[in-house]
Amino acid sequence: MEKPVSFFNYAQQIHRPPPHIEMMQVNNALAAQNDAIYRRHWSFNNLPLQQLRFASREDAILRDELRQTRKRLTQMERRIEEFEGQLHPHRNRQPHGPRRPFDAMRPQTIPETSAEPDLTSWLTQQRQNCELWNQNFALKECLRNIEVENNMLREMCRQKEVNISLLENKTRQLKSDLQFYSDVKHDTKELVQAFNFKPLKVRVKIFGSLNNKYYFVS
């Protein structure tokens, strides 16, 4: 025959750590998970130089587009100078010397040939970008909370407007009932004076809806 299992004995068999130790274990697990994710995305081994070379090629393409744009601007400037010379042939074209074309070399011009990209600086920049993304996400979340609160305030204002409208309707109804009672009292007084009735206590009962009202005097 099996022995009955006591509830207290069963409760003693289930062992759970204290809350602070359990919270510490959860924090350690989350930290390890986030560290693994970070290492998977931002480690030296899993970030080949292919991405950096691709970024370098994209940068070179943008520089080439910039040079082409400067070249087109120089051509447009020359055409403008030709038009100005045709309109004003006796005027000096450039009193302060010739203009520098847009495609000429400037002091802040980036050299065409770039060295091998630095992986450490690139990773540092990516970490800073991650921090900025997190801040942006937090700001968006704060903005969303503000929008939710704003919608709640608008709903409260709308509800107050509805209540005010209901109170105004109730006030108009009470004024109409008061006017009706005053008219009944005035008509009763005129009837008493016309037929020389003895002064009696007048009791007026009003019943029915706002549009259909009936009264009697007793």
Give structural notes.
By secondary structure, this protein is mainly alpha-helical. The protein has a domain at 37-91. It is built from 4 helices and no strands. It has helices at residues 7-13, 19-42, 49-87, 119-194. The longest helix is centred in the last third of the chain and has 76 residues, at 119-194. Residues 207-211 and 214-218 have low confidence and may be disordered.
Biggest sheet record: none
| Shape, principal axes of CA atoms | flat
Number of strands: 0
First-last Cα distance: 91 Å
The Rg value, from CA coordinates, equals: 45 Å
What is the number of helices? 4
Q: Could you report the average pLDDT, rounded to the nearest whole number?
A: 70
Summarize the structure.
The chain has helices at about 5-15, 20-40, 50-85, 120-195.
What labels would you give this structure?
single chain, 218 residues, mainly alpha, flat
Task: Give the arrangement of secondary structure elements.
Elements: H1 7-13, H2 19-42, H3 49-87, H4 119-194
